Amino acid sequence: MKINYNQLSVLSPEDKRRVLCRREGHQNIEFGFEHPYKINSDFLKFNLIYECDREIEVSYWQMLPLINKSFPIEEADYIIYGHFYARFHNFQDEVKRQIEELAKLRKPEAKIIVVGKACNVMPHLDPNLEDILFFESHYAEKLGEYFNVPMKEEYFVFDNDKDWLNIWPVDGCLRKCGFCRRSYMHIPFESLPLEYIKDMLDWYKENNPWMLNHIMLRAENLTEYGIDIYSRQALPELIKLLDSYTEINAISIMIGLAICEINDEILDALCSSKKMYNVYTNIETGSNRLLELIGKGHTKERAIEVFRRLRESNPNILLHTNVMLGLPTETIADIVELADLVNQIEPNSLYVLKYRQDPLQPLAIYPYMSDEIWAYHLKSFLRFVRQGKRNIPLRIDTIKVPQLKNRKYNREMAIVQKEREYHYEDRDLWQKILLPRNK
Hints:
There is one protein chain. With 439 residues, the chain is of the alpha/beta class. Helix content is 35%, strand content 15%. It is built from 17 helices and 17 strands. It has a 9-stranded mixed sheet with strand order 7-8-11-12-13-14-15-16-17. Strands 3-4-5-6 form a 4-stranded parallel sheet. A two-stranded parallel sheet has the order 1-2. The N and C termini lie far apart (56 Å).
């Protein structure tokens, strides 16, 4: 069955991934024009299934008219390649292998075009490779210019499943936290001008005012918004702009508020807005020693102040945070401090991450914590947090944990011995991980 582009545009990010990756029968898509180029995008489509929402919505989805039809590699004049490895930790060797394999399979003089964050592999490729281009940023529009196909990146995308309007006001992050891929990868930093954002909001107000009801601000570091174009943090002005629209009733911030960069002006703006709904800002760990070691730039005292003021300013606000266990040099004393911090700020949800070491990170100079010790730290942390005033809904993201030699922990840790992410209601999670020892 053929589906036109307008019908496809209302799909959720997950459904758009399936379309881009040719999954679940999405094979024939109609467009108002056909291009004459023989393009292969098989590797790109295969890798997109794990790409982040921003890349899918802002850029790759807009490329669909160009990459909808794919010729065999040996027939293609152009091979478009992308990879999600910037979303996770270092896939550099795999990306290098794939591109060099494509170079062997292509016909003579066929060009390989590498797009997005996969361009970080450029210095590591075989220097003898020819006919290879790199479009690191604005690659949908650059490809459109290159092939003379009308494509324009979109930074305002309505999510029909969630009933909110996604806005990506800034891309990139200038910080270099010791555990983050940005400590060893180049990702261009760029903010959208306030004038452009206002023009887009005005368009929605005029044409689809109901889509403005709930705004979802999305960025990897929203607190740095505007630094590149205004030489200052312009987030307060962006919040004020959003507050000025009566059609906007709720503002959520999925990620991107770095506590160390929430200065008093930004904090005042967040607290003054009565439209703030869901706000995510990550404490990561709870001892000032570890916070300094990993380069987060804030103190636990500042984290407490930020959460306290946000909570006091708006009793209906929902605050969420991440913590990371297994950090280098982490001790049970650090776990106790972290649990105490969590119980003080009382987030509405908690995401527990396992620190994963990469040899290119600054923190790689430290020994990696064993799975057994990490499992013990996780179990201890959950027990300490459980002693707080209330249950905090949480989820755990973990890699496989081996069976522990100490039998009393086997049942308690069995729930995290899976190679995937789990979501549980708080009551079920506590019951399954913190089983009574006499049962």
